[in-house]
Design a protein that fits this description.
Blueprint: H1 9-48, H2 54-90, H3 93-99, H4 104-142, E1 155-162, E2 165-173, E3 180-190, E4 193-206, E5 209-219, E6 225-233, H5 240-243, H6 254-266, H7 272-294, H8 308-335, H9 340-363
Helix pairs in contact: 1-2, 1-4, 2-4, 2-7, 2-8, 4-7, 6-7, 7-8, 7-9, 8-9
Keywords: Cell membrane, Membrane, Transmembrane, Transmembrane helix
Protein name: Lipopolysaccharide export system permease protein
Membrane topology: Multi-pass membrane protein
Length: about 375
């Protein structure tokens, strides 16, 4: 019995080439249809801004294209696997290979190797192209598809924790010790119980803390408002804790997101949801490696038994079940219900075991 992982160079090249061509064809068809539908749905908003025309529509399509490729590449690999295996099964090529002593795992090996290459290329594509396109498109959408305003370093709706107290600022602008806060509200608490609320129009850096001038304090117990000429808050809170903007994980590269997480963590902000997305930037592209294993149910069994269609449905069901579980786990990670590593990797490991179990019990 041949126990080599790749028993034949000819079979390896043939299977990998056929799989890649089928997956690329399916991806091209999906992207063409979905981009057209998306452009039809969004073109009204793009053209609503006065002066926009064909050039802006092409710009939108160019920025949206990488996002569609990123999202539907695993679907294309799944459908490419099913189509490839169904064709090989119908032409009795699978039976011929098995009659020659090639095991089910050896038949899958070329597809797994090819899908691993797809995963590496997908990670590089997402990291270098999709993240930049997403950031540019998000900024353009926020400007209603008009000229994107220059980033002036103003952060709005900022929350910072100072022990039991919570500090809110409507805006934070500037850099370093020149940071200025507007619309300052301090919720002063004792043991988790709200004691008073301090409000002020502006706050500036003063020593190791912040000075709020012409403030007023509402005492919860007495229900009275007391004028405060000047109040010092946030002793030990550095300016960067106010000026760190909310991070869009989809618009950052892997290293850029990791750096942002470190900065936010130092600022005392929760980063569990961002860590889930960070790990998913690796597990997401690797889902392409699962697709040949989940779609392998369509490869084996006699085509003339009349159950090939049932096998195709089962393979498609397994693939789509993985995508549902992956999105659910990521949502739980964003809510903080799952730890980041579990949210990103649990569906991958679970369906890897499911696919391998089905393959061993039915074919090996």
């Amino acid at each position: 019995m041949n126990i080599a992982f790749f028993p034949s160079a000819t079979i390896t090249r043939y299977m990998a080439r056929r799989f890649l061509m089928t997956s690329a064809s399916v991806l091209g068809a999906l992207v063409l249809v979905l981009l057209t539908l998306d452009l039809l749905g969004e073109s009204g908003k793009v053209l609503a801004y006065r002066g926009n025309g064909d050039a802006e529509l092409w710009r939108y399509a160019g920025l949206r294209l990488p996002q569609i490729i990123q999202r539907f590449l695993p679907f294309a690999v799944l459908l490419g696997t099913l189509i490839c295996f169904a064709s090989l099964n119908q032409n009795s090529e699978i039976i011929s290979m098995k009659a020659g002593g090639v095991s089910a795992h050896q038949i899958l090996a070329p597809l797994v190797l090819a899908s691993l290459g797809i995963a590496v290329a997908s990670f590089a594509f997402n990291d270098r192209i999709v993240s930049r396109a997403t950031a540019a498109l998000s900024a353009w959408e926020a400007a209603d598809y008009g000229p994107v305003p220059r980033d002036r370093g103003i952060v709005s709706n900022v929350w910072v924790r100072d022990g039991d107290d919570l500090i809110h600022a409507d805006t934070a602008s500037g850099r370093g010790n020149a940071v200025r806060l507007t619309g300052v509200t301090v919720y002063e608490r004792d043991g988790g119980r709200l004691v008073s609320i301090l409000t002020g129009a502006q706050g500036v850096r003063a020593g190791s803390g912040w000075r709020v001038a012409q403030a007023s304090r509402f005492d919860v117990a007495s229900g009275k408002v007391i004028a405060v000429p000047a109040a010092e808050i946030g002793r030990g809170i550095t300016p960067d804790r106010f000026t760190l903007a909310d991070v869009d994980p989809e618009g950052r590269s892997f290293i850029g997101l990791a750096d942002a997480i470190d900065e936010l963590e130092k600022a005392g902000r929760p980063v569990g949801a961002l860590r889930s997305v960070l790990w998913h930037k690796i597990s997401g592209p690797l889902s392409a490696v699962l697709m040949p294993l989940l779609g392998a149910v369509a490869a084996f069994g006699l085509a003339r038994s009349g159950r090939l269609f049932v096998r195709l449905v089962i393979g498609m069901g397994l693939g789509f079940a993985y995508f549902v579980a992956d999105n659910f786990a990521l949502a739980m990670g964003n809510l903080g219900a799952y730890p980041p590593l579990l949210a990103a990797w649990a569906p991958f490991v679970l369906f890897l075991l499911i696919g391998e179990t089905i393959l061993i019990r039915t074919e090996e």
